[in-house]
Design goal:
heterotrimer; A mainly alpha (123); B mainly alpha (458); C mainly alpha (630); A: mainly alpha; Methane Monooxygenase Hydroxylase, Chain G, domain 1; 4 helices; B: 458 residues; mainly alpha; 19 helices; 75% helix
């Protein structure tokens, strides 16, 4: 690899960054400038029709949702490891299979542990 | 390879033991595992090892010695805090997290690839975010966890940005190639900017000024046992990693950063000692004292040279032991005083439990650098190293700030020896009792055994 | 063997740690067994190491790297050679006997465990002192035994006088230590090393010293020896040190620690050999001390004080031998002295034990019938110290006298005088204690009894050693004519500088007969005064003669030091504390403290707990570092 990189090699990236940032700013500015605005109580309401609003929307919500969500993310990310394995399944062969079993095994120990600790208990 | 396997599997085994309802066996398991880790280090010592994981890591002499010291410190931590956690299930979480974090430190002292280094830092830090906020009922602990997480994320980002710039300038993550590329282009501005940002990221992790602001708040907010762990194993791991980086691939350009590091070290020493002097809370004082030792260690990283690794290891070990001891004593004392951590909480400790008072005295004197405690030799090595690199002003500053250090360390000692009316005795269980004796003796024995570290050759 | 050598000091250390930390609730007999057992193991190991030295070469056993600072390198290493092994042997041997004895003597003391812990620690440091391969290692042991001596003199710390005695010993020794340190520095500057192996065994580095520098180094080291071995003018602490328990007096202040000075000078024999001036200083100090000790002892009435001054006097003998170049004979006298002086002290302990703590010989008398074992063993010790054939003291003392006769007749005459004094005061004490009528109270008389076995057996063993111990050094001239070697000289031949006596067998016999006859006259005189006539010793307020008063008050040494050193020092420190300290020093110190706190408060404002501020600091730091690059 070419180790004598220079800053101007990254000029396209800088241009790209400026264009991306500029586009967002321009568009947002444009919508504010061009779009007509009509404000009234009904229009600012979160729901324009249906059940009337009860209280403030910015209330603390139960940590349980958060736990479930974070566990989902964890296992979602775990799958990322399986894609490259699946692609190279033939080359890696039985060794790869055992490696994946070991990996899954360790994950499952963690999963079982947090379930035992009551992470998924709703009450 | 074996070292990494043992340390990571140990954490998982702890979880497994909990699942199998073997909670009583967890502590023996941890002890056996850590002793095995030290044993493996001893067995592997001096044998040539090959890089593994596609040149990601290398168990060279430096890595082995560092792992040995980290494992010992962790072992001491488990021994001395064994009573602070009753055998309930919450303990398992903390133990597993501590072991995972130590695994991060193991990675951090043996990496040969920048990706692995970043991975190590994250493995080291993420369990800490949880550990810091593990005292869930205490708002201070929650606040500390959030602050640490937030600022830690920023620091990681800066570090990552630095790695990216270095990669941009050299096109590689690998140490060998990196070393060649760096010495070929020492004046490349992008490379230097990258290194500077990596140094900044590390400066945050080791709490050097002006990146240290999180330290007092986090150290104070965390459960005291966690603070003990952070100021010993985590600090040692981060410094040993930084040293590996500076003397390894970046050694060719480090001369250009000497002034910067010296300035950081000086700023760290001045700010921390001035702040420590005005504290009324012992835990916060110890946090600032920990920052001041970061100043010393930073100077140790700068000096490098043949004896550099030995000196840094010696400092890490001696400070780690003193710090574990002092925080553990603080934990016991405050738990007998409804959580009070002011200087007054220590009054009459020598009557309440002479062993605790003795261990605390030795630990504080070691931190202050009074012979015949090991801390004296540690400071002496670093100061003489600094003098040999012709930065006499920094050496003078180190001595002066150590004098300020005497002031706040002695305040605790004086409080301990101040008589107090009807003080109840503090009882310690066997294991803890012996650990305090062992650590006290070690702090003195290491003073005499300092020559061994100085001639460590890698 | 190398591992064995490291084990020797480790046993007592382990004993000390065990007794200090883990002996709570254990029975006394168990603690006593642990304490004595640790020493016994050391003794066994010493015997094994000693046997390798009978035909072996000196060995340096490196234990660990100790100090490396620039060109200054000191290993913590042990030197195993004939001199150190023979010291090992008698230190561990005598210490073991005294440990056994202490188990009986201290049995009812509340500080029993503490006592054994200190004793073990003392033996550990003593072994380090003897084994150390460099002056610095020796100094560690040197200071360590000083510390233990301090703790043991003040063992009964509830009595303020004991604490004062302990402090006195400590402070007087510090003066000597200063000489030792300066001597060490001088040796290091000129030779570049402090290792005995390099300095003396290989004979290479010592060449850096010569002429006046060698004299200065030797005299400075000798000052250290003076402190530890109680030579004029640093002898005042030793008699006061008798405040400690009697086994301590026997082990530390008679048999082992006080002979460390002899050991050090013998170790440095090559150095002392280089300077005639230094050797002369050693002879003069030794001679004065032996006379001073012998004369003061004539009037003392405390059984332990008599023995203490006799120790001072005997140490003087040893230094005279050292100064005349008879290093092996000094070591020989150390060994025999260790046997009979330990025996005498333990015997006196047995007497004190029976008397319920009474130490004044004017309150004793007629103890012979009550305690036969103590009586007979004490008699052997007394004869041995007076130098009567064939007891141990005869051989060593006779050879010192022979050397003196050869080299310097006045020295010989004065030594003879001291030796005659010894015979008189020892038998004076002996007769007053064991013969005549009992002069104590009725209660004491009722209480008189022989000591238990655990105390008498060590007495018997030491008595045997005091009887036969002298045969390891049979005089050359006589020995060769009847076929007995001077084993000790032969053994130490290659370790220290040798000086052989050239007296013919005939003159040696005559000298021995004359010396013994002189002693016998003094013994007979003591007998006629204190037994035949039954004269009693004067009470303190009956003393009239000026000479007697001078001796009873120990030549006013303490008062002299008080007036010339302590008072002026007190005045100076008073002046400093009234004027200099509050105005100048406190002002500067408190000022810098105030400055520190003030700047701390100033820095504190940034540490405000707000994430935004912290973040700002981090970003500012990164930007600053990036700017620094250009």
């Amino acid at each position: 690899m070419n180790t004598t990189a220079h800053l101007w090699d990254y000029l396209p990236i800088l241009i790209m960054a400026i264009v991306a940032l500029g586009f967002v700013i321009t568009v947002m500015a444009l919508t504010h400038a061009v779009g007509p605005r009509r404000k009234n109580a009904v229009k600012d309401d979160p729901f324009e029709c249906g059940i009337p609003v009860q209280g403030n929307a910015r209330t603390p919500f139960s940590i349980k949702y958060f736990l479930v969500a974070i566990l989902f993310v964890l296992f979602d990310v775990e799958v990322i490891f399986m894609y490259p394995w699946a692609v190279n399944f033939r080359e890696l062969g039985v060794f790869g299979l055992w490696e994946m079993f070991a990996f899954m095994g360790l994950m499952i120990i963690g999963l079982v542990y947090i379930i035992r600790r009551g992470a998924l208990k709703w009450e | 390879m074996k070292e990494l396997l043992i340390s990571s599997l140990l954490g998982i085994s702890v979880l497994l033991f909990d699942l199998l309802r073997l909670r009583r066996a967890i502590l023996p398991l941890v002890a056996a595992g850590l002793i095995a880790l030290v044993a493996v280090v001893v067995v592997d010592w001096g044998t040539a090892s090959n890089p593994f994981g596609n040149n990601m890591m290398l168990m060279d002499g430096y890595a082995l010695a560092s792992i040995g010291i980290l494992a010992l410190l962790t072992l001491f931590w488990f021994a001395i805090t064994s009573d602070s956690y009753p055998a309930q299930s919450r303990r398992t979480d903390l133990y597993a997290l501590v072991l995972f974090s130590m695994t991060g430190a193991v990675v951090l002292v043996s990496y040969t690839n920048l990706v692995m280094m970043f991975l190590g830092i994250e493995i080291l830090s993420i369990p800490l975010y949880v550990l810091v906020s593990s005292d869930r009922q205490n708002p201070l602990s929650n606040e500390a966890g959030f602050k640490y997480f937030f600022l830690g994320a920023v620091a990681s980002a800066i570090l990552l940005f630095g790695i990216a710039l270095v990669y941009g300038a050299t096109g590689t993550f690998d140490f060998t190639e990196l070393g060649a590329a760096v010495s070929a282009s020492t004046s490349n501005l992008m490379l230097k900017a990258g290194i500077a940002m990596m140094l900044a990221g590390f400066a945050f992790k080791v709490s050097a000024a002006p990146f240290h602001f999180w330290t007092p708040d986090v150290y104070q907010g965390s459960p005291t046992t966690v603070t003990a762990y952070m100021s010993s194993v985590v600090k040692a791991g981060a410094f040993l990693a930084l040293f590996r980086l500076c003397t390894g691939p970046f050694s060719a350009v480090m001369d250009g950063f000497t002034d910067m590091l010296a300035f950081l070290a000086a700023l760290t020493l001045v700010v921390s000692n001035l702040m420590a002097a005005v504290q009324t809370n012992v835990k916060r004082m110890l946090a600032f004292s920990s920052i001041s030792h970061a100043g010393f260690l930073l100077a140790g990283v700068m000096t490098g040279g043949e004896t550099g690794p030995g000196i840094l290891l010696y400092y890490s070990l001696t400070y780690g032991i003193a710090s574990i001891t002092s925080f553990a004593v603080l934990h016991v004392v405050s738990s007998y005083q409804n959580g009070a951590m002011e200087y007054d909480a220590f009054r009459g400790l020598v009557r309440r439990n002479p062993f605790l008072a003795g261990a605390m005295t030795i630990a504080l004197l070691s931190m202050a650098g009074i012979p015949p405690m090991a801390g004296f030799m540690a400071k002496y090595f670093i100061i003489s190293g600094i003098i040999s690199t012709d930065m006499v002003w920094l050496a003078v500053l180190m001595v002066l700030t150590s004098v300020v250090g005497m002031y706040y360390y002695l305040r605790v000692i004086i409080a301990m020896f101040t008589p107090v009316e009807n003080a109840g005795r503090i009882m310690l269980r066997g294991l803890q009792h012996y650990t305090y004796i062992l650590l006290s003796l070690l702090m003195i024995i290491l003073f005499f055994a300092s020559g061994f570290f100085e001639v460590l050759n890698f | 063997m190398e591992r064995l050598v490291t084990l020797i000091p480790l046993f007592p250390l382990a004993g000390f740690l065990y007794i200090t930390f883990l002996s709570k609730g254990l029975s006394r007999s168990f603690v006593g067994t642990v304490g004595a057992g640790a020493i016994l193991l050391s003794f066994v190991a010493s015997v094994l190491v000693f046997s390798t030295q009978l035909h072996g070469e000196p060995v340096v056993v490196k234990v660990f790297d100790w100090i490396t600072a620039g060109s200054f390198e000191v290993d913590f290493a042990f030197l195993v050679d004939p001199l150190s092994t023979i010291y090992l042997l008698f230190i561990t041997g005598v210490a073991f006997l005294i440990h056994v004895y202490s188990a009986g003597y201290m049995h009812d003391d509340e500080g029993f465990n503490r006592f054994f812990a200190y004793l073990n620690l003392f033996v550990f440091f003593m072994l380090i002192l003897v084994l150390g391969d460099s002056y610095l290692t020796m100094f560690v042991g040197w200071e360590g035994v000083g510390l233990c001596s301090y703790m043991l003199i003040g063992f009964w710390y509830k009595d303020m006088r004991n604490n004062d005695a302990a402090k006195k010993a400590f402070i007087v020794n510090r003066i000597g230590d200063l000489g030792f340190i300066l001597g060490m520095v001088l040796v290091f500057i000129y030779c570049g090393t402090l290792s005995f192996g390099e300095l003396y065994i290989m004979d290479t580095a010592i060449s850096g010293l010569h002429g006046e520098v060698a004299t200065a180094a030797a005299i400075l080291l000798f000052v250290g020896a003076m402190g530890k071995s109680a030579q004029i003018p640093l002898h005042t602490w030793l008699p006061d040190a008798m405040a400690g328990p009697t086994p301590v007096s026997a082990l530390i202040h008679a048999a082992t620690m006080v002979t460390a000075g002899i050991y050090m000078v013998a170790r440095s024999s090559q150095l002392f050999q280089m300077s005639e001036t230094a050797s002369a200083v050693v002879v003069i100090a030794g001679l004065l001390t032996s006379l001073l000790g012998a004369t003061i002892a004539l009037t003392q009435n405390d059984i332990k004080k008599v023995l203490a001054y006799s120790t001072v006097s005997q140490l003087g003998f040893m230094f005279v031998a050292l100064g005349m170049g008879a290093y092996t004979i000094a070591v020989f006298h150390v060994i025999t002295h260790a046997f009979f002086k330990a025996l005498l002290f333990l015997g006196s302990g047995s007497v004190i034990h029976a008397m319920g703590g009474e130490q004044d010989i004017r309150r004793m008398g007629g103890l012979k019938s009550h305690m036969p074992v103590t009586y007979w063993t004490f008699l052997i010790g007394t004869i041995a110290i007076c130098g009567i054939f064939p007891f141990a003291g005869f051989f060593s003392k006779d050879q010192i006298l022979a050397h003196a006769l050869e080299h310097n007749i006045p020295v010989f005459a004065l030594l003879m005088l001291a030796s005659m004094g010894t015979a008189f005061y020892m038998f004076r004490m002996f007769y007053l204690t064991f013969h005549g009528h009992f002069r104590g109270s009725h209660e004491q008389e009722h209480h008189l009894h022989e000591s238990p076995r655990v105390m008498t057996i060590p007495l018997v063993v030491l008595a045997v050693l005091s009887t036969v111990g002298g045969f390891i050094g049979f005089p050359h001239a006589i020995g060769e004519s009847i076929g007995i070697h001077h084993w000790l000289d032969h053994f130490l031949e290659n370790t220290v500088v040798m000086s052989y006596s050239t007296l013919s067998a005939g003159s040696e016999v005559i000298l021995a007969v004359v010396a013994m006859a002189a002693a016998a006259v003094m013994i007979w005189y003591a007998f006629s005064v204190y037994v035949k006539k039954g004269t009693r010793a004067l009470e303190d307020d009956e003393v009239e003669s000026q000479a007697h008063r001078l001796l009873a008050n120990k030549y006013w040494f303490d008062e002299l030091y008080d007036a010339t050193i302590r008072r002026p020092a007190d005045a100076l420190s008073g002046w400093l504390s009234r004027l200099v300290e509050p105005r100048m020093i406190d002002g500067a110190v408190e000022g810098s403290g105030r400055l520190t706190r003030w700047s701390g408060e100033a820095v504190r404002t940034i540490q405000n707990g707000s994430l935004t501020t912290y973040l700002l600091a981090i970003i500012a730091g990164v930007i600053l570092m990036l700017i620094w690059l250009n």
